[in-house]
């Protein structure tokens, strides 16, 4: 089962989707295209999910036959390959539809790398519906982070506190700290530092991965904002012609905690 930063609110298929909540406010009679794409500076394969919805999350259906292109800062067009699988490609919660069709762009195929600070443009054409969804993102201006340190840090929940800080990154609207264990994944948004007591629910007994990442404004607006049950106001959508997100994320640092009681 693959996981990455795609999904996301409506699909909860990213590595940190357990920390997200449903944010779209669509009527059951709506007819809308949802596009989820997050360029990840640490991955060689980039994914775009295209779905159709009537406003009910469980009824979302994959869109096949779309023409998906990402234009790089130098003007080169990277054309996505449609990938179908009889099983779920990305993990989803029990009440959500399986993600069985995605559009994959292999950076190795084109011999390119994502450019820190570069502007990328997404275009999704759906010929059968004469629809077009467009968006753009500016990559946070940092180089991909090195692999995770192989030496875990012993962290005792009853007495230790985790304190993290980092330098600000150009073109980053904010930062996310992802806590991953075999049992669960949690995400915390932060500015330039984060301090958490060991009793915080993000720490699980056993090996925990802690990843600090810089995110662009599209990602920050879409995933940090949740719906207001009183006013009905919801996510901030930067796409044209559809709902969703085309954002970018780059890893700043990683560490492994050996969490003990």
Walk me through what this model shows.
The chain is mainly beta and 261 residues long. The chain has 2 helices and 16 strands. It has helices at 107-110, 217-224; strands spanning 32-40, 45-53, 61-62, 67-71, 77-79, 81-84, 101-106, 119-126, 131-138, 153-156, 161-165, 174-180, 185-190, 193-197, 206-215, 243-260. The strands form 3 sheets. Strands 1, 2, 3, 6, 7, 10, 12, 13, 15 and 16 form a 10-stranded mixed beta sheet that branches. A 4-stranded antiparallel beta sheet has the order 5-4-8-9, with no helix packed on it. It has a two-stranded antiparallel sheet with strand order 11-14. A hairpin with a 4-residue loop joins β12 and β13 (185-190). It is globular and about 60 Å long.
Set down the secondary structure blueprint.
Elements: E1 32-40, E2 45-53, E3 61-62, E4 67-71, E5 77-79, E6 81-84, E7 101-106, H1 107-110, E8 119-126, E9 131-138, E10 153-156, E11 161-165, E12 174-180, E13 185-190, E14 193-197, E15 206-215, H2 217-224, E16 243-260
Parallel strand pairs: 1-16, 10-16
Antiparallel strand pairs: 1-2, 2-3, 2-7, 4-5, 4-8, 6-7, 8-9, 11-14, 12-13, 12-15, 15-16
List keywords for this structure.
single chain; mainly beta; 2 helices; globular; disordered N terminus
Short note summarizing the structure:
The protein is mainly beta and 261 residues long.
